[in-house]
Design brief:
70% of the residues lie in helices and 0% in strands. With 103 residues, it is an all-alpha fold. The protein has a domain of 60 residues. Helix 2 packs antiparallel against helix 3.
Length: 103
C-alpha cells in the first residue's frame, strides 16, 4: 500500500481500513460539490482514521484539505482533492499485501 506502513498491532484492521477509505473517498468527492463545512468535517474524520492506522501522508493531506475548505481556498481544495484521490488509489484492498508487510 504505497506510501505508508500499518501501525504495528493494527495489521488486522488493514482490510477494513481499505474498504472504509474507498467509501469515505466517494463521500468526500460528493461533498466537494456542497458545503465547505461538511467537506471539512468529513476530511477531518477521514484524517483521524488515517492517523490511527499509520497513514500519516494521507492524514496530512486530509487535514490540509480541512483547513483549506474552512478558509475558502477553492484552488487548494481542488488540488488537495486530486491528491487524496491519487493516494486513495493506492489504498485499495488489492494493495493490502504491501501494507501489512507480507508477501
Amino acid at each position: 500500500m504505497s506510501g505508508f506502513t500499518v501501525t504495528p498491532g493494527l495489521e488486522h484492521l488493514a482490510a477494513q481500513y481499505a474498504k472504509e477509505m474507498e467509501l469515505d473517498g466517494e463521500r468526500l468527492a460528493a461533498l466537494a460539490q456542497g458545503s465547505a463545512t461538511e467537506l471539512a468535517a468529513h476530511a477531518h474524520a477521514m484524517g483521524g482514521k488515517c492517523a490511527m492506522i499509520g497513514d500519516k501522508g494521507l492524514a496530512t493531506v486530509l487535514y490540509g484539505l480541512e483547513q483549506d475548505a474552512l478558509a475558502g481556498r477553492a484552488a487548494r481544495v481542488t488540488a488537495a482533492l486530486a491528491e487524496v484521490e491519487t493516494l486513495l488509489s493506492h489504498r485499495r484492498p488489492e494493495h493490502l499485501i504491501d501494507a501489512v508487510g507480507t508477501a
